Amino acid sequence: xxxxxxxxxxxxxxxxxxxxxxxxxxxxxxxxxxxxxxxxxxxxxxxxxxxxxxxxxxxxxxxxxxxxxxxxxxxxxxxxxxxxxxxx
Length: 88
Fold this sequence. Notes:
This protein is mostly helical. It is 50% helix and 0% strand. The chain has helices at 10-29, 48-53, 61-73, 83-87. The longest helix is centred in the first third of the chain and has 20 residues, at 10-29. It starts with 9 loop residues before the first helix and ends with a helix. InterPro entries: Znf_C4-type_bac, Znf_C4_TraR, Znf_DskA_TraR, Znf_DskA_TraR_CS. Keywords: Metal-binding, Zinc, Zinc-finger. This is DksA/TraR family C4-type zinc finger protein. It holds the Pfam family zf-dskA_traR. Residues 37-66 form the Zinc finger DksA/TraR C4-type domain.
């Protein structure tokens, strides 16, 4: 296949770079450092096991689940794949 000046692995290199950037971006959003002993939303105690498992934890499980559900509801992706979205 004619690719001009691009090398044989240029497409795969671009895919790899995109994936690496996405991983770095996701990791940068993860909490870090010492976690809280009480939830910053509802003031419920955060169990020691959760604080060890999730570095930098700031929310109890219930509050984190509520936040995750809220964020996924506003993700902006059309997961149903309607015919109209496929035609655009």
